[in-house]
Design brief:
9-stranded mixed β-sheet, 15 strands, alpha+beta, elongated, 4-stranded mixed β-sheet, Fusion Protein Consisting Of Minor Coat Protein, Glycine Rich Linker, Tola, And A His Tag, Chain: A, Domain 2, 7 helices, 267 residues
């Protein structure tokens, strides 16, 4: 299950749904159409990929591998057709002959070293994650020694995005305005009780479940779980056509400040 940790930034009121910078995908050309490729076949040749990084000598947080590979599927075979630096200013290119010698023919190299999956995204972008962004459709090509052995397309359009996940202030407002403050112990002005919970969505995108991952005592734990279960919706993510379990970890902060700011709205 994918964890999105909100601990520190939630305390200071800043949203942060991913700890990694989204990675620039490779490109795959099929019958003249170009698709985003979230597989990186050159990384199956560690010495070659290191050599490319050395030559380009440019690493970016959005492109740790240091290059963008251009690939082509032709006659059920995979070919490498180009390598471009991740520098968005220079866009340096590398001759395939420099890297592969006489294996480079007619400006391309047969990728007979690659066995695995080619994961292509197509359709509209639904959700933006680090290296696992969700698009309307995913097409997965199975390859063995550079030859296509199978193809399957998946429909991810059942993915829904809840504003309570993407808009932190909406989530805060809902939680703290629905806490039954009058049933809880009165806290000193400088005191905060923290209950760390995991919010767990479901396939329908309806009200989530919650589980305590760091307790503050039964009174506080039970109220945190009760309120989160009242959320009218939570995001439902689909990958490869199936529900993709996804959890958010976050603190529910019981404090006088939150009680004064939000509490009067519910009672």
């Amino acid at each position: 299950m994918i964890n999105r940790i909100l601990f520190i930034l939630w305390l200071i009121g800043t949203s942060y749904s991913s700890l990694a910078t989204p990675q620039t995908p490779d490109r795959l050309v099929i019958e003249g159409d170009t698709f985003l490729l979230y597989s990186h076949p050159l990384e199956f040749l560690p010495e070659k990929s290191r050599q490319v990084r050395t030559i380009f000598s440019f690493i970016h947080t959005a492109c740790w591998r240091g290059y963008i590979g251009y690939w082509q599927l032709s006659d059920q075979k995979l070919y490498l057709t180009g390598l471009v630096s991740c520098s968005f200013e220079r866009k340096d290119t590398l001759s395939l002959a420099t890297l592969f010698g006489d294996q480079s023919k007619d400006g391309k190299v047969a990728a007979d070293w690659f066995s695995g999956e080619l994961v292509c995204a197509n359709g509209q972008l639904i959700r933006y994650f680090d290296d696992q962004s969700i698009y309307q459709f995913e097409t997965v090509y199975g390859c063995s020694q550079g030859r296509v052995t199978g193809k399957e397309t998946f429909d991810n359009r059942k993915t829904t995005v809840s504003r309570y996940e993407t808009e932190p202030e909406e989530l805060r407002r809902f939680i703290y305005s629905h806490i039954d403050w009058k049933t809880l112990p009165v806290l000193p002005a400088d005191s905060t009780v923290r209950v760390f919970v995991k919010i767990i969505g479901n396939a329908s995108g309806s009200s989530p479940k919650a589980a305590v991952i760091k307790s503050a005592g039964a009174v506080w734990d039970n109220e945190a779980i009760r309120v989160i279960a009242m959320l009218p919706s939570w995001s439902a993510n689909y990958r490869r056509g199936k529900f993709w379990p996804f959890a958010w970890n976050m603190p529910v902060l019981f404090s006088k400040a939150n009680r004064l700011r939000y509490g009067q709205k519910s009672n």
